[in-house]
Structures are given as structure tokens and as C-alpha cells.
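Q: Predict the assembly, please.
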Amino acid sequence: MSSVKKMVVDWKGNLRFDSRNEKGLTVSIDVPKDHGGEETALSPTENLLASLAACTSIGVLGILKKKRQNVTDYAVEVTAEKREDPPPRVFTKIHLKYKIKGENLSSQAVETAIKLSEEKYCAVGEMLKKSVEITSSFEIQ
Amino acid sequence: MSSVKKMVVDWKGNLRFDSRNEKGLTVSIDVPKDHGGEETALSPTENLLASLAACTSIGVLGILKKKRQNVTDYAVEVTAEKREDPPPRVFTKIHLKYKIKGENLSSQAVETAIKLSEEKYCAVGEMLKKSVEITSSFEIQ
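A: Predicted assembly structure:
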């Protein structure tokens, strides 16, 4: 079973682009000043990192909720190694460090949630992992 | 030569996440209502399509500028086929349709710019193409 997703990307001058989904929601993408942009929004590769971390996080929080774990605070630190030369400037490694706070959180439940989300549910990670080494760790705070 | 990029992703409740780069620029990511989110921003996979199209577009417009082509309007229509079942819900195919307007644009210059950008410069496409079939076409308007 498959579905079709459509988006429209509009040029907003210089190197800035607004991308709109079918419901009218948009995201702006720009380029850093030292690469000729105006730095009004994340770059394409930064946006890719945001997509990856949000994707795994949706799974992690969804699974923890099902396991009746009460998460009160949650963040991910993303560290990515980027090859600068030669182009294309791809990420060679991405590390996701999950930092989770909650009431009586089970370390085992957190570990399983991260593993399941990363290996089974996160589509962005699945599409990247043939090209990029993706690793993760977690800290219960 | 490589560099390190860091980002922090903060949970904003339910399934919404704000991702911040080192310069303080942020992007919000949410989930559609029929998947439990509040639909305040693009989903992770929509954001990935936006990243890909902006990435190739930066190259296309940069190359056309170097070739002294005067582009006056520019958009990309993205059509992606998504496997819905089983998870993860990955894209199996992505098509980028470039729609370019300008003064006396050379069709050959446009074709070369797209090819060069997609094959040589765009890092997002490079990281995805081992998993996803990415094709493109263009129309000079």
C-alpha cells in the first residue's frame, strides 16, 4: 500500500525557498551568509537533521506513552560530522543524544523505545542509513 | 576535510518539536491530526522533501547565475510516493519538476544546471539516493 505526497517549493529571492504542503503549512529554508544566503532560516542539511531527530522522537515519545512512562521533559542533542570537501557536503556520521526527564522512568523502557523507533518506525532514518552512520545514546535526568 | 554541526531539538508538547541550530535559527515540526499531532507545521517526511528540493534549487540557481541566465521566477513541484505499509513509511520515489521563468533562458543551460546540481552538489539528494529513486524534469515557462 502506498500514497502520494505533493509539495510546492517557491523561490523567495536570493537562496531562500518556502515549501508548502497540501494543507498550506510551510517551511522556509535559507543558506548561511558565508555561502551566499541571508541566513533567515535553517539550511537544507540542518533541516534534514531536524527531520531526523523529530522523526525518531515521535516514535520514542509514542512508545513511552504506550508503556505508561510519564515523560515531563525531553530534548535531543544532534551532532553531525560533515564532509566539507569534495562536494557534495554530506554527513558521514550523525549522533542523537536523547535527554529525557520523567517520573520514575524505566531505563529499560527508554532504551527499548529508542531502539524500536530508530529501527522500525522512523522513515527519515531508514532513508538515510544506507549513506550515513547513525548512532544514539540516552541520559535519564 | 570535515566539520561538525550541532543542533538541539526541544519537545514542545504532544508531538511538536523545535530544532535550533548554533546561530539560534529554528524550525518547528509537527504531525498530522490523523496521526495524533496538532498539524501546526510540516511533518518530518514533508520537511525532508522541502530539504531536498531547496538543496537542489540552491545549486540550480547558483549555476544559472554563473552562466548569466536571468531567472525571474522559479518553483519546484515535488511528487513523492510513500510506502504506507509496513512501517517505516519511507518514500520509494521522488520526482522534482522544476518550473523556471526568465529572459531568453537557454534550455541547454537549465538542463546542465539541474544535472550538475543533482549529481554533484546537492548533499541531501546524495544521502537519499541509495534508498530512494529520485528523478526530475523541467519546464521553461
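Chain B touches chain A through 76 residues (CB under 8 Å). Residues 44-66 of chain B form the longest helix (23 residues).
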